[in-house]
Every structure is written in C-alpha cells, then in structure tokens.
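Hi there,

I know you've been waiting on this one. I reran it after we fixed the sequence typo, so this is the corrected version. Both the input and the resulting structure follow.
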Amino acid sequence: MAVAPDPVDVLDRAFAIAAQIGGAMNSALTERGLTPVRAGLLLVLHEQGRPVVQRELSQLLQCTPRYVTALVDALETQGWAERQPHPRDRRATLVALTPKGVETAEWMAEGRRKAAHRLLGDLPEADLAGFLVVADRLLGSFGPDEVRGAG
C-alpha cells in the first residue's frame, strides 16, 4: 500500500526546484552583467515590441515610476536600452531596446525555451497537465500582488 505524500515534503520540493532554477538563471544573467530585475525589464520591452513610455513600464512592472527611472538608467548605462523623445508628448520619454538589448532579450527567451524543453520536454502530456493544475492552485492561493511573473 502506497504512503500518501506529505504536503510539507511536496512544498519542500517546490522550494528546491525554485532554488535550482533561480540559481541557474542568476548565474547566466550575472555572466552577462544583468540582475533578474533588469532582465525582467528587458523582457517586458521585448514583449511590447515597441518603445514604451516610462509611466507604462511602471504599470507593467507594478512598481513606482522612480524605480523604473533607476532601472532604465542602469540599462542605458550598460547599452541595453535608450531613452527617446516621445513624438507627440514633450513631457513623456520613450524607452527602447538597443540592438544589444534586443539580442540579449532574444538570448533570454531562447534560454528559457531550451531549459523548458530540457527539463520537461520528455514528460507525458498528462504529467505536464497535472503539474499545471497543482502549480495554478498554488499560485491561486496567493493574492494578485503576491504573484509576479505568473501567467
């Protein structure tokens, strides 16, 4: 007779998975001179596919405009992004990826795709679907402000 899994053991495994993935991600980003937060801004800009007003970035990242200003300053200093004047609003500033920023965002997206296929690609569809059910339930137990990057 099989012993039922202990929820504490399952949660411990989830933490272990998060730590392993987070550690690998941080190492890869550090090699490129990025932090996870700066990488997140690069990905948001890349996903938008166009220059974005800083005010909109603060909404997309769910942070203050002042924090976005500091992030953009850092990305601009490193050559990943640039500020551009808004064509119709003199008070607004657009943020756009530089070619280096586009290349880096594409590298991150490709790395994510490769990691997903390496880690999960050989699992049966039923196992993946079951994992999604559990993951969605766990994520749903947090408030919307507590779940960043989900979905």
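Quick highlight: The domain at 32-138 is CATH 1.10.10.10 (Arc Repressor Mutant, subunit A).

Best,
R. S.
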